[in-house]
Amino acid sequence: MVKSSRSKLGDRTIAFLCLIIIAVCIIPILNVAARSFSSSEALIKNEVTLWPKGFNLQAYQLVLGDVKYTWSLTWTALLTVICTFISLFMTTIAAFPLTYDHLRGRKFINTFIIFTMYFNAGTIPMYLLLKDLGMLNKPSVLIIPYTLSVFNMIIMRSFMFGIPDSLRESAEIDGAGPIRTLIHIYLPLSTPVLATLALFYAVGRWNGFSDALMFMNDRTYFPIQLLLYNLINAISNVEVATLEGFSPPGLSETLKAATIMFATVPILVVYPWLQRYFIAGATLGAEKG
What we know:
Oligomer: single chain
Shape: globular
Number of strands: 0
Distance between the termini: 36 Å
Order of helices and strands: HHHHHHHHHHHHHH
Number of domains: 2
CATH topology of the largest domain: MetI-like fold
CATH superfamily of the largest domain: MetI-like
Number of helices: 14
Largest sheet: none
Radius of gyration: 24 Å
Strand content: under 5%
CATH class of the largest domain: Mainly Alpha
Helix content: over 70%
């Protein structure tokens, strides 16, 4: 079928807009990468745009040679994996029972869960609760409080609603219970949405630092984003710079850019592996709710 000139113009317009959006997303990353490989003198003079000036690897040598950075990155990666698996488990066991029409109190449970999306106690009550539970300054405070996302649970539930009931009924006729039905039927068919939610949870945990900032004083368990936050503050705060052991302002600019790349690249590498599942899960999960 031959496209009309108007259709071709529309396709070209959409492609042009996509290129603009891609450029808007990529240019800042290229600028940060160029700054991380540039000399401090070039940064002070604002000579760096999209290509390094006075190419050097001093900032990366400092980052990779500092145990504080490498341990923080390792801890953040481990924390991200743990939180992702626990969150997926909690999301699955919360969403699957809500797909049963005969579940008693299903409407009340749905309403109660969704209520928490709009209303919460706030930061101070959360802090007091975690303090009473003895979780402050412990690794568990970065894992347990934000284990389940109601929004992600709704996505999972909507996706499972799209799985034909006949499959579950066939399994029940063969004597399969709810757990076996979930493991052998629903989970294999839910690979796209599981990959999508895994990406959501992983990115959220990797980029998170506010919980560590509020609930964690033990510097051993600072995630990489909180370390980066302290580094950015160190540029304008001499007291923080002394505490963190950062370099003079000229080098700190290069070090900041290198640390941003150091903290950003690992999670960006994950996207290509989950892209096809991400697209499928994001679209199929909205078909039926």
